[in-house]
Amino acid sequence: MTGRLARAGAAAVAAFSLLGGMPGAAAATPDRSVAAAPAPAPAARPGAAVPGLTVRLEELSPAVVRPDQDVTVRVTVTSTSSGASGPLSARVLLGGTPFSQRQALSAWLHDAQPRSLATREVVSQPIAAGVPAQGTTSVTLTVPRAALRRGTPFGTYPLAVEVRSGSDRVALARSVLPWVGANQEYEPLRLAWIAPLTLPARRDLFAGSVDEVGQAWSQTVGTGGLLRQRLDAAVGTPVTWMVDPAVLTPPSATGGPVTATPQTPAATTSPSTSPTVSGAASAATTPATTTPAGGGSTSPASPPTGSSTASAASAASSASSASPSSTPATPSAPAQTPTAPSDPLAAARTDADALTARLEALGDDQPVWSLPVGDPDTAALLRAGPDPSLSAVVWPAGTNPLTRAVGRSVTDSIAWPADGSWAEGRTTAWTRTTGGSAPTAAVVSTDAVAPQRQTTPGAAQRSPDGTPLLAYDERLSEVTAGDPSSSDTQMVQEFLGQSLTLLGELPGTRRTALVAVPRRTALSGPALRRLWSATASAPWLRQVDVSSILGQGAQARQGIQGSQSVATTTEPSRPASPLDGPAVDELESDLATVNGLRRILPADAPGARAWTAAIQQLTSARWRGGSQAWTQLRGAVDGSIDAAAHGVQVRPSTINFLADSGTIQITVNNTLPYAVHDVRLELVPGSPKLRVTQSTKTLTIAAGSRTTIQVEVTALGAGTVPLEARLSTPDGVALGSATTVDMNVRPTSVWVFALVAGIVGLILVLGLARSLRRGPTRAERELGDHEAVADAVLGATRPAGGDRPGGADRPDSSDKDS
What residues contact residue 413 under an 8 Å CB cut-off, 6+ apart? Predict the structure, then answer.
C-alpha cells in the first residue's frame, strides 16, 4: 500500500512538471484556488526519434460528468514525419482542484506556457504499433468513475491527454472536464444567444467573373451553404438573428466589378498623324468617314474588353438610347440570358429567395433583428468621419429592405458596433453620422464596461447617456469564434467549462449571460449544432430569449430591471479595421466618380448600381481581420471604376493647321458597353497662339462607337501648340486623363507676308549685285574719252576747273590761250 502511494505521488509530480513546462508565451496570472505542486522537475523533452507528432481530442463523453459515470476519451495521434514512430503510450491527466477564475482557465487552454497545475494520471494505454509515417492512429481511453469522485458541488477541472515515447513526452492536448454533483446547489445561469447572418469576408461575392461570383453566393446562401447551415443548426434553440439585408440581394447582372468574361487589359489606341491641310480645311484625326447632315461623323470603335465587357443585350439596349450620329459596335461576347438555368447569377438569386423564405418561416423563439445594409463598421467610420455623400450610401434612408423581404416588421434599431464598445458620447456621434435616431440598445462586450471586482458584468447594462446595453460575455463569445487548431470537442468543453466557472462567481444569484457569436466565426453548422445541443443539456444553464434582457417598448428606454448604469472604459481587443482615414477618403473619391458616371450612363446600366453596392460593402464590419480580402475587393472595384472612366477618351493625334481660322476634327471613342450622354468635351490651348471659338462641347455616343466633332479655331501665331482635350461629366467629374492633340499652327497672313518680303528682298539683292558687276556702256565705248566729249560740247559753259572732276590736274582752255 505504501509503495502504491509513493508511486502515485511520483506520478503526480511528474505530470505537474510536464504540464507546466511547455514552451511559448508567458505564464498566466496565478489562480489561488488551484493547488500548486512542489517545485517542478525539469520539463520532459520531446523524443528525438519521433518528431512531428500531434494529438487531438476528438471525443469526451459525457461532456458533463455526474457522479457514478465513467468518461470515454478518444484522441487522434497524427504524424507528419517521413518515418514510423515506434511504440508509444497515451495517458489521461486530471487536476484535483477546479478553476475559480476564468482567466486561469483560458490560460490553461491557450497559453503556450500555462501556469503549473497539480494533476495526476487517471488512466494510461500503450500504443504498441505506434503511428505510421504521415499517418494517424486513434486511441480510446476510459477513465473509471472511481477516479472522478469530487468533494465540491460543481466545478471545471483541468484535463490533458499526453502521448509519450518511453519517458519522453512527444505530444499533448489540453482540455477541461466540467463536473456537477447530484444536488443542485446553485441558481441556474440564464443563457441568451445572438448570432449573425452576415456575409463572410470574400472578394468574390462582389467582384470577379459571373462564375466566381455565382459560386461564392451559392456557397454562402445556397443549400448547404454557410448561412443555411447556421439556421439549420439552431433549430430548437432560442437564437436572436442579427441579419444583414445584403445576404438576400446578390448581384443580378453583369456590370461594374462583375464581369461576363475574365478581366483583360483594355485595348489602347495609338496616335495617328494626319496629312497637311491648308486654307479653311483641317487635318482629321480619323480615317475618311461619311459625314451625316448633323455635321458629326462616326465610325465603329474596337469592342470593349476587360471589366467593362457586357452582354450583347446590354449593348443593344444602350445603343437604342444613343444619338443618331453614333454607330454601335458589335460586342465580342455572346448574349446571355439572365433567367437561364445555367446562369450562375440566376442560381444565386434562387438561393437568396430560398433563404428569404427560411427567414419568413422562423418562429417567435428566433426573432430577426436587422443590421444596416452591408453591416457597416460604424465604430471605424465614426473615427474616420465620412462625408455626407458616403454616409448617405452607407446608411440609406427609407424602408428597411429586410422588412420588405420577410413580409413583416423587424427590429432595426439595435446597434452592434464591431469594436464591442459604447464609449461616452458615441450615441451623439452615432446619430450625427448615420443621420438616424439613437439606437434602442447597443450590443457591447463585457470587457468594455466597468466590471465588478472578481466577477463578470451581467448582460443588462446602461451607458452614462442612458442607452440600454446588451453586454455579451467576452470569453464565452470568443469561444464561438472557433479555432482551426482545436477540435469541436475542445470548443464545446471550453464553452461548458467557462460557463460553469462563470456560475461559480455568484452561484446563488440569478444572472443572465449573453453570447454574441462573432461575425468572423469559423464554426461550421455541425459544430454550432453540437454546441447548442450541449448547452441545452447542461444542468446549470437555462436557455432564454434576448428580449427577456432588453424588455419591451418603453421599458427598454425607461429602465431595465436589474440593470446597472456603467461607464464603458476600454475597447476590447479586436482585429483592426481597414477603414482608416485615407481608406475612407479613397472610397469618397470613388463614390464621386460613380455619381458622375451615373449622369452620363443609361438609368438601367447595372454598372453604376454594382459600383455603389460594392463601395457600400467595402465599409462593412466583416473586413476586420480580413484586410487582405478587403484590399482585393477594393482593387477590383477601383479598377472597374477607373476602366469605365477611361472608357470615353479623346483619340490623340497630330494636326497641321495652315490657316488663319477654320475647323479641326476631334474624335472621341466610347469603348463602354453603354451609350453615354451629356459628356462634356473641353478644349484648352496650351499657348495664346491658338484660340478655340467654342471650347466646350456636349456629346452623345453610342455603345462601343466613336464620334467626330467639328471645332472652330483661330490661329494667332505660328508654332507648335498643345491642345488639351478634357472629358468630364455634367457635374465636373473627370473621365479618364486629359489627351493632348499636337497642332502645328501656321496662319495664312504670316506665311504670305513672309513670302512677299522674301521676294522684295531677293529683287534688291539681285539689283545690287548686278550694279556692282557692271562694265562701260556701249555709248561710252563709242564716244571714247568722256572729258573730251564734254569739253567739246559744253565749251565755255563748263564750271571752273576746281569744280569739275579732275580740274586740278587738267589746265583750263583759257590758260592755254594765254
Answer: 437, 439, 440, 441
Q: Which residues contact 302 (CB under 8 A, 6 or more apart)?
A: 267, 269, 329, 669, 671, 704
DSSP class of residue 145 equals: G
Closest CA to 663 of 206, 402, 284, 396: 284
The C-alpha atoms of residue 664 and residue 183 are separated, in whole angstroms, by 98
Q: At a CB cut-off of 8 Å and minimum separation 6, what does 303 contact?
A: 329, 330, 331, 332, 671, 704
Q: How far apart are CA 618 and CA 627, in angstroms?
A: 10
C-alpha neighbours within 13 Å on the C-beta side of residue 79: 21
Q: Is 777 exposed, middle or buried (0-12, 13-18, 19+ CB in 10 A)?
A: exposed
The tens digit of pLDDT for each residue in 435-462 reads 888 899 999 999 888 665 678 988 998 8
Q: Is 676 helix (H, G, I), strand (E, B) or coil?
A: strand
- In angstroms, the CA 539 to CA 180 distance is 8
Per-residue pLDDT, 30 = 34
Contact in structure between 408 and 432 (CB atoms under 8 Å): no
Which residues, in sequence order, are bridge partners of residue 468?
462
In the DSSP assignment, the letter for residue 354 is: H
Q: What is the reported pTM?
A: 0.75
The residue whose grid cell reads 475574365 is 262
Least confident piece of the model among 140-154, 324-338, 454-468: 324-338
Average pLDDT (387-416) is 89
Report CA 442 to chain centroid distance, whole Å. Answer: 26
Long-range contact set of residues 338-346: C-beta below 8 Å, sequence gap at least 24:
338/252, 338/253, 343/210, 343/214, 344/210, 344/211, 344/213, 344/214, 344/215, 344/218, 345/210, 345/213, 345/214, 345/250, 345/251, 345/252, 345/253, 345/254, 345/258
674: closest CA among 405, 308, 260, 215? 308
pLDDT at 796: 54
> Roughly how many angstroms between the first and final C-alpha of the chain, as a whole number?
187
| Cα dihedral across residues 768, 769, 775, 779: positive or negative | negative
Pick the range with the lowest mean pLDDT from 396-410, 569-583, 660-674.
Answer: 569-583
In terms of Cβ atoms closer than 10 Å to its own Cβ (0-12, 13-18, 19+), residue 654 is middle
| Residue 465: pLDDT band with limits 50, 70, 90 | confident
Instruction: For residue 758, give every residue at least 6 positions away whose Cβ sits within 8 Å of its Cβ, in sequence order, or none.
Output: none
State the amino acid at position 109 in one-letter form.
L
Rg (CA), the chain: 45
Query: How far, in Å, CA of 106 to CA of 99, rounded?
Result: 10
Beta strands 136-143; 154-165: pairing state: unpaired
- In this structure, the dihedral spanned by the alpha carbons of residues 216, 217, 222 and 225, taken in order and rounded to 10 degrees, is 50
Look over the chain and give the mean of its residue pLDDT values, rounded to a whole number: 79
pLDDT computed for residue 793 by the predictor? 56
Q: Which residues, 6+ apart, have CB-to-CB distance to 738 below 8 Å?
A: 724, 725, 726
Q: Give per-residue pLDDT as tens, 546-566.
A: 988 885 333 333 333 334 445
Contact yes or no for 109/176 (Cβ under 8 A): yes
* Cα–Cα dist 732/730, whole Å: 5
Residue 70 CB neighbour total at 10 angstroms: 14
